[in-house]
Design brief:
Layout (H helix, E strand, L loop, with lengths): L4 E6 L4 H11 L4 E7 L5 H5 L4 E4 L6 H11 L2 E4 L6 H10 L5 E3 L5 H17 L4 E8 L9 H13 L7 E6 L5 E9 L2 E9 L3 H14 L6 E2 L1 H5 L2
Parallel strand pairs: 1-2, 1-3, 3-4, 4-5, 5-10, 6-7
Antiparallel strand pairs: 6-8, 8-9
Helix pairs in contact: 1-7, 3-4, 5-6
Bound molecules: nicotinamide-adenine-dinucleotide.
């Protein structure tokens, strides 16, 4: 029988951290061995885990990567809003440790990524594209990491360097909604995903933590984890 995957949870006191904790404690293949939140030193906590799951703040990434490299531990990064410099820190770390980086861990959104690529390829450049994302008022970054991923997918599929328009709406308690709109001559196609519970992200992150154990150093996406 395979041993439990020992997890360090970073951002443990936050909305996502608490959700991961709840699900992790009821998962027979996961053991949450350490928790960190703002002010806690990450490096000593990293020592006894197999994988660190990060749902904290983009500014924590330098310390997280340094600790992961020092102890050769895998990372599952769910935090969004990284600057270009912070993104490079992640790209440098994957030379030595495996990392799953996902702006969205839900199965539905990863299928939305796949459908968006397919729709953009089939509809071609005659269709104008636009993304609308809606989240709760407490969300710190805008546009959402998921909207940025959708924009990258659309730019690659349409072979354009032009920026894709993203509208960000912050209202109420909305967990997360993403709408991709293709407007063509005389018709309109919309792809929409609505998250109604944070559990979908937490479940995906735990699935990624189980998947990444034993993988060679590289930067992986949730699409790799799901085999999409
Ligand atoms: P939150 O503000 O509720 O929680 C963040 C927690 O991180 C807080 O407890 C905060 O004290 C802690 N924190 C801040 N800086 C830290 C540091 N340097 N070290 C350790 N802990 C630190 O936010 P949330 O809604 O839980 O979201 C957290 C992150 O996850 C955000 O970037 C959000 O966009 C992202 N997110 C990603 C997904 C996904 O599927 N990838 C889904 C939901 C949210």
């Amino acid at each position: 029988m395979k041993s439990l995957v020992r997890v360090l949870l970073i951002g443990a006191a936050g909305r996502m951290g608490k959700t991961v904790l709840d699900l992790g404690e009821n998962d027979s293949k996961i053991e949450i061995v350490a928790q960190c939140d703002v002010g806690d030193p990450i490096e000593p906590a990293m020592k006894n885990c197999d994988v660190a799951i990060d749902f904290s703040h983009a500014d924590a990434i330098t310390e997280i990567c340094r600790a992961a490299l020092r102890h050769r531990k895998s990372l599952v990064i769910g935090t969004t809003g990284h600057s270009q410099h912070q993104r490079r820190t992640i790209e440098e770390a994957v030379q030595a440790v495996p990392i799953v980086l996902a702006s969205n861990f839900s199965v539905g959104v990863n299928v939305l990524f796949w459908l968006t690529r397919k729709a953009a390829e089939l509809l071609g450049a005659d269709f104008n594209v636009e993304i609308v994302e809606t989240h709760h008022k407490m969300k710190k970054d805008a546009p959402s990491g998921t909207a940025k991923t959708l924009a990258e997918i659309l730019k690659a599929a349409q072979k354009t360097k032009a920026d894709i328009a993203i509208e960000s709406i912050r209202e109420g308690e909305v967990v997360g909604e993403h709408n991709v709109i293709f407007s063509g001559p005389g018709e309109r196609l919309e792809l929409t995903h609505r998250a109604v519970s944070r559990e979908i992200f937490a479940r995906g992150a735990l699935r990624a933590a189980k998947w990444i154990r034993g993988k060679p150093p590289s930067l992986y996406s949730m699409q790799d984890v799901l085999g999409l």
